[in-house]
Design goal:
The complex is a heterodimer of chains A (144) and B (264). Chain A is globular, with a radius of gyration of 16 Å. With 144 residues, chain A is α+β, with helices and mostly antiparallel strands. In chain A, the strands form three sheets. Chain A has a four-stranded antiparallel sheet with strand order 4-3-8-9. Chain A has a two-stranded antiparallel sheet with strand order 2-7. In chain A, strands 5-6 form a two-stranded antiparallel sheet. Chain B has two domains: 114 residues, Immunoglobulin-like, CATH 2.60.40; 103 residues, Immunoglobulins (Immunoglobulin-like), CATH 2.60.40.10. By secondary structure, chain B is mainly beta. At the A-B interface, strand 1, strand 2, helix 2, strand 6 and strand 8 of A face strand 8, strand 15 and strand 16 of B. Strand 1 of chain A pairs antiparallel with strand 16 of chain B.
Chain lengths: 144, 264
């Protein structure tokens, strides 16, 4: 997938995410019985070998994965891409502040699910050079 | 003191308009005067307000990338010549300004204002005896540069660059009967300034394998790759840069994953 198409996909998904997320605050939930709609994470700050990395410069985008078990492998195909950053424009519409993406609305993945099932969701970071990270520890997402 | 202890966040949010100064090849960056703290308290009359304006090619405005445009000015604008500095080496640069009070207190830098400098001065036009311009419009540059560990590499010192083949000219006609060659360059300069480019090698294939040690690259140093396509005596422009931290093993996995409830 070219970087342009990735960005396009990401932009569309992110926009949908913003729309679906609606207005209001957020709060962490510990039980799957609550209305869970988003996954949050911390961008990586080191390489697998422990070398420091700069998420702002080194992360291009994230890939999201869904399975009904926790056995994510390199053969799994992502169901969504989200850019590693987004720009918040000032009221003048010209200047902006760039921020790291740390959250994604899971409702965007509902088309890839069946109601009543329990899924696991994970993500990988993809560097600007195309090299991918390992999978984040999977999280259970119960749609029952 | 309470109001002063609050960061001057947002005070320059209305900053900046770029206008072309009359009768000169200069530009002007301007911003709104700062007269209050973030909580609305007026800045004391005896406290001088000055500004420091910087530019960067980094949209994140990382501190180590900021280059001064003007320092400690009490004016609310600064004039600059894009060609005089290194701005023209970049497709887009970003301005930012911070406020500094006489007491030494300073705001954070404002949001980034993007600006596309004019292109660098080009070579003089060809002499009248030169052959007419190629009607094909010239070669297009290679696209979609990527990099991966060479599949047969025993270590992470051997890597393979790859890219999309160039099969058409700029005007859309197909390259037929000739083999396009590709030249690969690397540099530590994000602006890809011509003088900084080191030839890594050339290939008639759409990949090129290299050894980081042999190329003189330093592990974890940030470098940039670019490529040109070549056909006979004709060379394309440089491709878009591929940013790479030498021999990195990819990012670490995202951490601290958690599910979050959002109010509808």
């Amino acid at each position: 997938m070219s970087r342009f198409s990735v960005r396009l996909t990401v932009s569309v998904i992110f926009l949908i995410g913003i729309i679906l997320s609606g207005c209001g605050g957020s709060g962490e939930v510990s039980q799957a019985s609550a209305p869970i709609t988003a996954i949050a994470w911390e961008p990586p700050t080191v390489d697998p070998d422990g070398s420091p990395m700069d998420s702002r410069r080194d992360i291009d985008y994230y890939e999201f994965f869904l399975r009904t078990d926790q056995n994510f492998t390199d053969d799994d195909l992502p169901v969504a891409h989200v850019s590693g950053f987004y720009d918040v424009f000032e009221p003048d519409g010209k200047s902006f502040t760039r921020k790291l993406t740390k959250e994604f609305v899971l409702d965007n993945l509902l088309p890839f699910t069946e109601k009543g099932k329990k899924y696991y969701v994970s993500l990988r970071a993809v560097g600007v050079d195309g090299i991918k990270s390992g999978f984040m520890v999977p999280l259970a997402w119960d749609l029952s | 003191m309470k109001s002063k202890s609050i960061a001057f966040l947002g005070i320059l949010l209305f900053a900046s308009a770029l206008t072309r100064a009359a009768l000169a090849e200069t530009r002007q960056l301007s911003w709104s005067a700062v007269t209050t703290y973030t909580d609305g308290t007026p800045i004391e009359a005896e406290n001088t307000v000055s500004y420091t304006a910087c530019w960067s090619n980094d949209p994140w405005l990382a501190a180590d990338t900021l280059r001064p445009l003007v320092s400690s000015t009490t004016a609310t604008s600064a004039t600059f010549d894009p060609a005089a500095g290194e701005m023209v080496n970049f497709q887009t640069i970003y301005f930012t300004v911070k406020t500094v009070l006489g007491t030494g207190e300073a705001s954070i830098f404002s949001a980034a204002l993007p600006y596309d400098p004019p292109p660098a001065p080009t070579d003089p036009p060809p002499a009248p005896t030169d052959p007419p311009t190629d009607p094909s419009g010239g070669l297009i540059a290679p696209a979609n540069l990527g990099i991966a560990v060479a599949s047969n590499s025993p270590s992470t010192k051997t890597w393979q660059l790859f890219w999309d083949p160039v099969t058409i000219y700029r005007n859309g006609t197909t390259v037929e009967g000739e083999t396009v060659q590709y030249k690969l360059y690397w540099t530590t300069d994000a602006g890809l300034s011509p003088g900084s480019l080191t030839l890594l090698g050339s290939s008639t294939d759409t990949s090129f394998t290299f050894d980081t040690d042999a190329a003189g690259m330093i592990k974890n140093e940030r470098i940039y790759f670019a490529a040109k396509s070549v056909l006979g005596n004709e060379e394309s422009a440089l491709s878009a840069a591929l940013s790479w931290r030498v021999s990195n093993k990819g990012p670490g996995a995202p951490g601290q994953g958690r599910l979050v409830g959002k109010a509808k």
